[in-house]
Amino acid sequence: MKPIFTRGPSFLLRLSIVIALSLILLLADSQFNLFASSRIYLNSLVSPLQYIADAPQKLFSTLADNLMTRDALKERNQQLEKDNLHLKADRLLLTQLQNENKQLRELLNSQRSFTNKRMITEVMSLRSDPFTHQLLINKGALDGVYLGQPVINEEGVVGQVSQVGSTTSRVLLIVDASHGIPVRVQRNDVTAIVHGSGAWNKLNVPFVQSNADLQEGDLLVTSGLGGRFPAGYPVATVSRFNYQEGALYAEVTATPVAKLDRSRYLLLLWNDHQYNESDLSLTPPESEDVSPE
Predict the structure, then answer these.
(1) pTM for the full predicted model
(2) pLDDT at 189
(3) Residues 135 and 173: beta-carbon distance below 8 Å
(4) pLDDT digit string (tens) for 174-187?
(5) Distance, CA of 105 to chain centre
(6) Cβ(260)–Cβ(236) under 8 Å?
């Protein structure tokens, strides 16, 4: 009687054959790229399954990111509320200081003061050459812009309006060689005048006595003299103070605090008494020295 099931090759032999065939196919594929098209079709067939398998993990990651974003927004909102509270408290003090300043101006018979009116303007183009440094902005006479109007950014003083059109205006920068602005040292209230040098990162401070209490690193802010610029806005920091024996004045240079060649948005300031038609000149009152282009 013959057995129903005949005994075939041993398990070890079959395993060896499979391993050998696998190695041969791997080597052949790596050398001749035999199954490239087959792999592309197979990947296309199984890709929906891969997306389905990955969906739970992706959903979990998305939910986690959303929760983290909400927590971050909540924390930021709380911080903004705290900052707003501090700013409101500072505003209460600012109102009192403004009232005191108004009374002092009346005692000193100083009529030129600045309102809270401000307007954001965007820089359209920059004109820079060895003879002039100006910006073109997208506000003009139709927006109430006037000659000599002070212009600042978030860092400090940028310059003043030198030409006004109906919808655009030109701003003469503080580094222009024809621009001058009265300042004071924030540390000790020593007054001086800052002139443009024609270079982007340099301002000149002429006529400084050798014994003046001025140091490198001192912050120069607008003094308010002349009535064109409001007092207290940062202008520059003293970068060099050099005095040579026998010289009449010390050599003082400063660096503007505002990045004049990188500003995109500027802020126009208004005063209570704008210049009338007979005063539309860039030659400022008193000690300010600014001339037109």
Answers:
(1) 0.58
(2) 87
(3) yes
(4) 999 999 999 999 98
(5) 34
(6) no
Cβ pair 222, 182 in contact under 8 A: yes
A 10 A CB-CB count for 266 gives 21
The residue type at 115: T
Q: How far is CA 72 from the centre of its chain?
A: 24
Q: In the numeric block, which tokens belong to residue 105?
A: 């101006």
Residues 6+ apart with CB under 8 A from 181: 157, 174, 193, 194, 222, 229, 235, 288, 290
Among 117, 129, 203, 115, which residue's Cα sits nearest to residue 159? 203
Kindly compute the dihedral angle of the four CA atoms of residues 240, 244, 130, 154, in this order, to the nearest 10 degrees.
Answer: 20
Q: Is residue 151 packed enough to be buried (19+ CB in 10 Å), middle (13-18) or exposed (0-12)?
A: buried
Which whole-number Å values give the CA distances from 200 to 77, 95, 174, 179, 257, in the listed order?
Answer: 39, 36, 9, 13, 11
Q: What is the per-residue pLDDT across 171-225, written as a single tens digit (0 to 9) for each?
A: 999 999 999 999 999 989 899 999 999 888 899 999 998 888 888 999 999 988 8
- Name residues whose C-beta falls within 8 Å of residue 67's C-beta, 6 or more positions apart in sequence: none
Identity of the amino acid at 3: P
Asked if 196 contacts 181 with a C-beta cutoff of 8 angstroms, the reply is no
Instruction: Single out the residue of 202, 275, 271 nearest to residue 239, CA to CA.
Output: 202
